[in-house]
């Protein structure tokens, strides 16, 4: 009976998608012909892929009214998020210099594997994006246009972007609920570069809060992604927080796929050392996981200490979390214990009189025309080869082709957690 129910539900979802594309004739007032509206809203709409929500709103006035009303129905919102999170988790997001965000697609046909690009023009910029990237609504109006996006946090189906190291203007889009509009949040405490997302909250360390008698103390603030409320974590005093994905064995033991860590340096002690703490969700407390001696060479800032997961190494490390010191990280991003970077390579321009272009290379040449030199930007992931003591890079996604520039055309990027 369960199998029959899910087969029936699958057919209904197909029916809804066909309705969105105009393949089914709809009677006025019906969401889907022959089905009660409440059944459609509770059982079908939450299971439609998140990126179809704008299409659903454009079917008719009835669809637009009902889709917009879902934001005020918590039960349907929770069901939608539950269905959409598996589709969104692990997707990459990039922000280009023109403040345009893109997210990777999961609906590309397997037979269409040849790289294809589509043109994008925005705020005086012109470039070509790879077809595997879906364009999100523009940020204009949600954030000041005088700056560039400096940070993205993507977690629980939500995306947060903000400018600068101390910003109280934050833009949020909730893809997990099928929301397709940016909302401008005016938070009471600014977001900074040290923010980390964990267990449905964004933790903001390093804030100074005034107490009675004009004294100040360093605290950690916790921003709840669902309620949009910010509270002070009374028992935390750590300024350097990290989030690392765990191995499968750790997931089974803790019930979570990532861990929250903190680093504390004891430079002035008789025995200088670096202390690694891990947060226990069950007891809501920190415990020491490892103590390491400080390196013999000149000590760098604590922010240069990175935590890497086991799959960053070849062969994979036996430890869930590994500590490394980084002295150069201009183009790298450390996301949940993995190392990513955007690389550029020159692309030859094609003159108009060239006619010997192979059909297979036509997509790479982007047409036979005289254009400024374009650079292909590629998102890559690093693995550290322990035998050769070298860093090996593998391609994750081709981003697109951009005009030659001194700086990277990608302002920042992240991965949906």
From TrEMBL:
This is F-box domain-containing protein. Residues 1-22 form the signal peptide. Keywords: Signal. SUPFAM superfamilies: Galactose oxidase, central domain (SSF50965). InterPro entries: Gal_Oxase/kelch_b-propeller, KMD1-4. GO terms for biological process: negative regulation of cytokinin-activated signaling pathway; regulation of phenylpropanoid metabolic process.
